[in-house]
Amino acid sequence: MQTTAPTDAPDSAVLPTRRPASGRRDPASAGPTVTPPPDHAETMAEAAMTAALGEIRGRVERVTGLLVATRDGLVLYSDTHGVEDHSVAAMAAAAIGLATQFTGQAKVGAPRAAMFEGASGYVGVFPVEGSFLLVVFGEPEITMGLFTVAARQALSLLQQVILRLRVHTVRAVRRAYFEQPAPADAAHAQDHSPGLVREE
């Protein structure tokens, strides 16, 4: 009896599947289920991001506060003082939305920032990763140019933090995947998996 697998079926598995003792590859449906990181991982990531904002504010001169929000105006993380975070996040989303319309009408491309100078300081809104916004607060008694340099430095540091968190998340998922025990009936599932054609 000969078993022939179809050769035109694409391998849709995102992560590599385990191999049974016989050396044949298990189909994706028979492989172990990837377990996502535990719930406390999100809490740890939130704490790490909040701590990172405080560190960035301490490292970058002339920056007095930072806030990360969604494009819908929801607060994700913040390190601010004396402001209403939820109102600021909502106005930041509105500012970028208006800036998008304005730069579109002006034919200058998508906005990279929305900057405002007030009587007692500066505030800038920067798109981050397409889905998030970074709000940077600057101290008074400086020029718009100095604030722009400081704000973009804070943006660069935040992007590095996001990259490190993503790498950590990917490693956690891969670790959870490979630490799962292989199914005891892997070889049996291989012989009875759908998509195989048996010939007598």
Strand and helix layout:
Layout: E1 2-4, H1 40-59, E2 63-70, E3 75-79, H2 85-106, E4 114-118, E5 121-128, E6 132-138, H3 144-178, H4 186-191, E7 197-199
Antiparallel strand pairs: 1-7, 2-3, 2-6, 4-5, 5-6
Helix pairs in contact: 1-3
Keywords, please?
200 residues; alpha+beta; Beta-Lactamase; 5-stranded antiparallel beta sheet; two-stranded antiparallel sheet; globular; disordered N terminus; Roadblock/LAMTOR2_dom; Dynein regulation protein LC7
Remind me, CATH topology of one domain? Beta-Lactamase
The amount of helix comes to: 40-55%
**Beta-strand percentage?**
15-25%
Number of E strands? 7
Number of helices: 4
Global mean pLDDT: 77
Span of the ends, CA to CA: 5 Å
Task: Tell me the Rg in angstroms.
Answer: 25 Å
User: SSE order, as H and E?
Assistant: EHEEHEEEHHE
The poorly predicted ranges are 1-38
CATH superfamily of one domain: Dynein light chain 2a, cytoplasmic
- The 3D shape can be described as globular
Structural class label: alpha+beta
Biggest β-sheet: strands ordered side by side in the sheet: 3-2-6-5-4
Q: What is the CATH C level class of one domain, in words?
A: Alpha Beta
Sheet with most strands: 5 strands, antiparallel
CATH architecture classification of one domain: 2-Layer Sandwich
Protein name: Dynein regulation protein LC7
Pfam family, one: Robl_LC7
InterPro entries: Roadblock/LAMTOR2_dom (IPR004942)
